[in-house]
Inverse folding.
DNA sequence: CGGATCGTTGACAGGTATCAATGCTGGTGG
DNA sequence: CCACCAGCATTGATACCTGTCAACGATCCG
């Protein structure tokens, strides 16, 4: 996998108060007054699939909220190996570590066409002094990130590869409100589950053959009952 | 592994201002005034090795700061399997999720004799309204927890079992200021690395034979150079 | 001196990585 | 419109690694 740089163009600023997913994002609890305190513009970014949103060497001046699509956080090892350590979706925050002055921990790369709000850290710092509502939201985000990390450690890294793929498929399916969900390329599935691309492919193909999984292209749906039985063993 | 309940006795409250590790803990940035706001007592707890500090079914009324020793966070699966998802040490916070009103995510179990401060959540909530210094500390804790989770996902769950054990040994050694460090029982090593107890034992024994690792009982020291070569491959 | 617990080691079967070859598909340019 | 190519997915063969089951050793403690 070779990260490419951001291809897409700025779409200009957008009033947060009119945001259709306002109640799901970081600024959910802010008051009218709080919004008046936002001096720096919040830009909306459109990313094509496979674009790099940020990477550890970038200046850590922004945090990001996902409006739609999905972002993978990729942790590269010094020997060239890598793992995907998290998938972010609508309402999730990316790059919160910038708030603490840290460099970004990982590479953030879009998995599909993705729409994002770019929030200057200075805005947040300014608000922090005023609004304890924001703190609460931030704490909730950290907590969510942490609790997901624990799930990944337990669900996605133990058991044999068939069980791991089964758990991943269930996870991917339940994140979507739709029946259908986005099936990542096999290389990504491998990087998610700490298995090889080939093993990931074998398991996916096997699930397709026995009708546990249906897909064409990126779009998939599952037989949840069969998968649940699988992960019990 | 069978968790047992807390055996130890309360030691009574302790003035935080006199705490010898005050600058490493949650209350590091608090002012004299802030301390006056602490109405509920902060108790010091001594845990024998293997004691359960908290578990998901407990009331989430406290968060905990480690003064000395170590705590493992254990995530049990419905089928009886389990994983250790984090090791906490001096200055670390346990049970932060209680601040967001969540039930404790995991079982927290002492690995050695361990000394802990028990902080009522109500104290924190009260302080939150007054002190933005505390928020900053809390954010730092979340961030640290998250960044460690990523390391665990990448270091401790990929590569073959020899490399994983090597990485764990390096991790354990660099957490201690001393030359010697605490070598967990083989079952714990397995639960940390998602390998079986037997495999963990084999690798540890092998490292001992080729002098990469020295230990007697719980106390161990490593040949860092040899281990670093090992994890490169 | 048992007995319990933990660590070590062996044998073997099954699972997974590795290396390699072959399909499949969408996009590009003639 | 079609041929071709590049990238991804699939499949096969094989060696290696790890889980599993089992036995034995070491240590501690009553």
């Amino acid at each position: 996998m070779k990260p490419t740089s951001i291809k897409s163009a700025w779409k200009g600023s957008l009033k947060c108060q009119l945001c259709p997913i306002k109640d799901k994002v970081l600024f959910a609890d802010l008051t009218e007054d709080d919004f008046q305190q936002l001096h720096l513009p919040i830009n909306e970014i459109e990313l094509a699939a496979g674009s790099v949103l940020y990477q550890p060497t970038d200046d850590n001046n922004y945090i990001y909220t996902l409006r739609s699509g999905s972002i993978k956080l990729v942790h590269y090892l010094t020997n060239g190996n890598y793992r995907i350590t998290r998938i972010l979706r609508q309402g999730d925050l990316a790059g919160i570590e910038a708030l603490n002055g840290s460099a970004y921990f990982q590479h953030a790369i879009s998995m599909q066409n993705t729409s994002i709000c770019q929030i200057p850290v200075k805005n947040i710092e300014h608000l922090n002094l005023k609004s304890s509502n924001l703190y609460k939201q931030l704490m909730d985000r950290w907590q969510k990130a942490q609790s997901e990390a624990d799930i990944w450690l337990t669900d996605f890294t133990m058991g044999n590869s068939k069980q791991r793929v089964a758990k991943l498929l269930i996870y991917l399916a339940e994140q979507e409100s739709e029946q259908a969900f986005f099936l990542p390329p096999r290389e990504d599935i491998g990087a998610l589950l700490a298995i090889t691309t080939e093993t990931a492919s074998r398991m996916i193909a096997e699930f397709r053959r026995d009708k546990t999984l249906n897909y064409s292209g990126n779009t998939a749906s599952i037989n949840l009952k069969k998968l649940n039985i699988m992960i019990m063993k």
